[in-house]
Write a structure and sequence with these properties.
133 residues, alpha+beta, 3-stranded antiparallel beta sheet, 2 helices
Amino acid sequence: MKNLITTIASVLILMVYLLQFINNQQIHNTVMNIDREINCIKEISKQEGYLSGESRIELSSRLSDVANCDSGEIVIKGTEEKKSRGDLIHIYVKLPIKKLIVANDFFGIKDTDNMGFYKFDFYTTSEHLEREN
């Protein structure tokens, strides 16, 4: 009976590590999808010469779907005036990644502490061509 109880307790503890590995893979996939969405908006911003309001709204909507968070929790900042070809465009994105640890209650970690922020801060070169009519 003692061996059975010890085995069950050991299996439960080891199951947490297996589930954490699966969660890490899921977080990795989420971050890769976030990078893809940001890169897509980056390319649009390069063509437009700035980070437009429409691009911010679209990026916020896409990221809230990918990261399973509210769009109000996402911070998106960037160059608001058009830059001509060769000038730098700044884009900053910060969003929460929740449920970093699977069995946070088991380890005594609160839900509010079981999250991190993914920050993406970069400059890119504008490709916008100024055309005079």
